[in-house]
Amino acid sequence: MKLKKLVGLISLLCMSPAWAIEPFTVKDIRVEGIQRTEAGTVFSYLPVKVGDTMDDQQAATAIRSLYATGFFKDVRLEVEQGVLIVLVRERPSIASIELNGIKDFPKEQLKDNMKSAGLAEARIFDKGALDKATQELKRQYVARGKYGVSVTTTVTELERNRVAVVFNVVEGEVSKIKQINLIGNQAYPEDELLGLMKLSTPDWMSWFSKNDQYSKQKLSADMEAMRSFYMDNGYLEFNIGSTQVSITPDKKDIYITINFIEGAKYSVSKVAVVGNTIVLRDEVEKLIQVKEGDVFSRSALTETSKKVSDRLGQEGYAFANVNAVPTIDKEKHEVAFNFMVDPGQRVYIRRINIAGNDKTRDEVIRREFRQVEGAWFDVEKIKKSKQRVDKLDFFEEVNVETLPVQGTADQMDVNISVAEKSTGNISAGAGFSQGEGLSLSGSVSQNNLFGSGNHAAVQINTSKVNQVYSFSYTNPYFTDEGVSRGFDVYKRNTDSTSTAVSQYGSHTLGGGVRFGVPIGEDEAISYGLSAENTQLILTANSPARLTQYVNDFGASNSNLLGTVGWSRDSRDSAIYTTEGLVQRAFLEVALPVFDMRYYKFNFQQQWYYPVAQDVVLLLNGEAGFGRGYGGKDLPFFKNFYGGGTGSVRGFESSSLGPRDVNNAVLGGTGRAVGNAELMVPFPGMDKNKSVRLSGFVDAGAVYGPGDLPGSAGLRYSAGAAVIWISPMGPLKFSYAVPLNKQPEDRLQKFQFNLGSMF
User: Fold this and answer.
1) What DSSP state is assigned to residue 638?
2) What burial letters (b/e) apply to 194-224, b meaning 16+ CB within 10 Å?
3) Last residue of a domain, one of 71, 90, 109
4) How far apart are CA 172 and CA 183, in angstroms?
5) Sign (positive/negative) of CA torsion 102, 108, 113, 119?
6) What is the C-alpha separation between 510 and 487, in angstroms, rounded?
7) How many CB atoms lie within 10 A of CB 175?
8) CB-CB contact of 750 with 721 (8 Å)
9) What is the CATH number of the domain that holds 256?
10) Is the pLDDT score of 11 beyond 50?
11) Cα(22)–Cα(555) distance, rounded to whole angstroms?
């Protein structure tokens, strides 16, 4: 019997001609040594079939192919009387993975991470995958500031060619930044520069912000913040020479040293515009934020390039290139700039693609777009389109990308991707006072009914004071031009005997129709007509003025209401507003058809102003007044009220304004409210825009006839609030302290509101 052994891959590749085998025809193939692997699997990877001619090159290729599967740790080939024998030794499989000493992470999460590295139960054991999983585990601890973590692994062989893998982890303590040293700063004190950094030594908020834990990414961001600070204040040649980060031998304390090279302070000597500006050069020059004699500012250069590019983008030049080319005079410490303008080729939009809207119909999003397919690219129309989709308030996130069409130079696609949120909204308000305890109100609405963009709301309030049953429906695109139509049906029962408001009861039943007509991109007017009937119920404790009204005009009042409104909304976003203006005016008139004759007018203006990055100032002002006409008074149940969320926080809801001799609130014929609120990211949650902290000052008053005694006059309060854009709507918790409390005032320092910002 003739037997030839074909040695392993390396030997086979390096053997001399004396070791070469004579080519032969494979009559059969036999696999030996397999335990878990199926013979068919080996055959599928083996590049040799029965009937093939076997030679040195074929043998080498076969061994390489079987090794490459990762299933085997040894492969040999033998031949016996034309039969190719494949002898293999399988790698062991992983019977179990055990994690000991881990507290900071869920073990299942770590096992999932190891699986992506190639290490998992029932898989073939690979020493390289084990090393990779170990390093990844250490990396996760280092990312949490635990530089002293120790990870050791044990691999135990088991029967049936299996192994057990054990990770023993000693987590150690979090390493803290002990000291940050700045070297080379002469223009600015160290405290001011350290204030620009996110990283810091431990302070009272470190437990929450984790800013005392070093990370390479945070340090890089801090160095860029300091570089921007210097470059925006004239230091054109500023540079960070070196950065050293050292850790003590016990892995507990970290020391950071940053070396500055400030250079000289530069001013701008000359500014010019060069190239094909497309639009009038004078118009481009007005967009330049850098003027002769100004201190050099990198952000002003960037802003100029952006403004000029955007202006050319309005003309369809999507790829306009605007570069500021400097000419530096180091002796005079001056720099001149030539803004090189290259408009590129004019581009039009081929297609608008929408993604992510599983519930909302495409047409609901597409009808808000001002950029249309087939038209020239317009950067302002694309921005406006994004804002309008944002203001639908159907989505947590709205992203718009413009991508060039491959193979063309004058076409682009607009891709809009949205992340839908729950558009069902539970609106609630609550407050607590010693006298009245907890007060609640609520409603349920669906702002995107069946994905159509239509709005439906049902309010059912069965509190002790107010019982409200109402239904409203609005179609925002009743016509293709954007005219909206809505219907309202409502029933309200009021019993104010247990509140600060004058004691009376009422039953109101009504309904109506309304329309909204857009008159501009951000502007619309509305008008409506409704009818209602109110039945008044007085008690023995009702104020004399209420009794006099019923005696004069009766306990049953029918009313035909005509309404006219105007609104303008230029906010950049309805989700996370940073700038813009909201204005609303509303007139309600009782038409001379039924019993009542009165009118009420309200005006509100909100102004959002970005004070700094992620810091927004909100100013809100409201004014309203009402009067009777035709010899009749403004009905007392149509009076204005103030206090609580939506007006002056810190005072009980509807408790401000004129009172009767028994200190019951009567409401008034006029109201004024002012609010100033500064909103900042919640400490430690800078990247989470949905949670913000604010400080506010409120002022407001309700006014009535001059002969009424009580609390007429302005009231002030100040406090803090936490704002959370929750899945159910904006949620605001506030704590306010009245600044000029009067003896008759009722306080309610802690309040919260769900469903509206004011």
Assistant:
1) G
2) eeebebbeeeeebeeebbbbbbeeebeebee
3) 90
4) 32
5) positive
6) 11
7) 22
8) no
9) 3.10.20.310
10) no
11) 118
pLDDT (tens digit per residue) in 489-519: 999 887 766 555 567 778 889 999 999 999 9
**249 burial level (CB within 10 Å; 0-12, 13-18, 19+):** exposed
Contact between 368 and 385 under an 8 Å Cβ cutoff? The reply is yes
**625 and 476 fall within a common domain:** yes
Sign of the CA dihedral with 295 first, then 298, 299, and 302 last:
positive
CATH assignment at residue 621: 2.40.160.50
Looking at the structure, tell me whether residues 240 and 298 fall in a common domain. no
Q: What is the DSSP letter of 501?
A: B
Report which DSSP code applies to 637. Answer: G
The C-alpha atoms of residue 308 and residue 74 are separated, in whole angstroms, by 67
Is the domain of 606 the same as that of 652? yes
Location of structure tokens 């203001």? 391
Dihedrals φ, ψ of 161, to 5°?
Answer: 55, 50
The tokens 């995958």 sit on which residue?
Answer: 129
* CA-based nearest residue to 84, from 38, 57, 61, 53: 53
Strand, coil or helix: 123 = coil
Question: Nearest to residue 671, comparing CAs of 656, 649, 652?
Answer: 656
CA distance 753 to 440: 10
* Phi, psi at 14, each rounded to 5°: -105, -5
Per-residue buried b or exposed e for 279-307, using 16+ beta carbons within 10 Å of the residue's own CB = beeeebeebbbbeeeeebbbebbeebbeb
pLDDT in tens, 397-431: 899 999 999 988 899 999 999 998 877 766 655 54
- Residue after which a domain boundary falls, among 391, 420, 449: 420
pLDDT tens-digit map of 33-89: 777 777 887 888 888 888 888 888 888 888 888 888 777 878 888 888 888 888 888
With a CB cutoff of 8 Å and minimum separation 6, the contacts of 647 are 622, 656, 671, 673, 698, 700
577 beta partners: none
Half-sphere exposure of 536 (CA within 13 A, CB side): 23
Q: Which of 290, 178, 179 is nearest to 234 (CA)?
A: 290
Helices (runs of H) and strands (runs of E) counted in the chain: 13, 38
Q: What's the pLDDT score for residue 435?
A: 37
| 612: amino acid identity, one letter | A
Rounded CA-CA distance 536/548 in Å is 12
Residues of the domain holding 284: 267-342
% of the chain with per-residue pLDDT over 70: 89
- Residue 100 CB coordination number (10 Å): 12
Assess whether 469 and 610 both reside in one domain. Answer: yes
Same domain? 541 vs 633 = yes
In this predicted model, what pLDDT tens digit does every residue of 653-704 receive, in sequence order? 888 888 777 777 778 899 999 999 999 888 766 666 778 899 999 999 998 8
Q: Which two tokens stand for residue 439?
A: 């007060």
Same domain, 587 and 647: yes
Distances (CA, A) of 746 to 86, 563, 621, 665: 93, 34, 23, 11
Specify burial of residue 51 (Cβ count, 10 A radius: 0-12, 13-18, 19+): exposed
Verify that 33 and 152 share a domain, yes or no.
no
Neighbours of 636 (CB within 10 A): 22
Q: pLDDT tens digits for 593-635?
A: 887 899 999 999 999 999 887 889 999 999 999 999 988 888 8
Q: How far is CA 439 from CA 347, 717, 729, in A?
A: 59, 21, 20
- 352 shares a domain with 299: no
Tally of structural domains, the chain = 6
N-term to C-term CA, the chain: 97
pTM: 0.59
Cα separations in angstroms, 119 against 70, 140, 214, 287, 482: 13, 17, 30, 58, 58
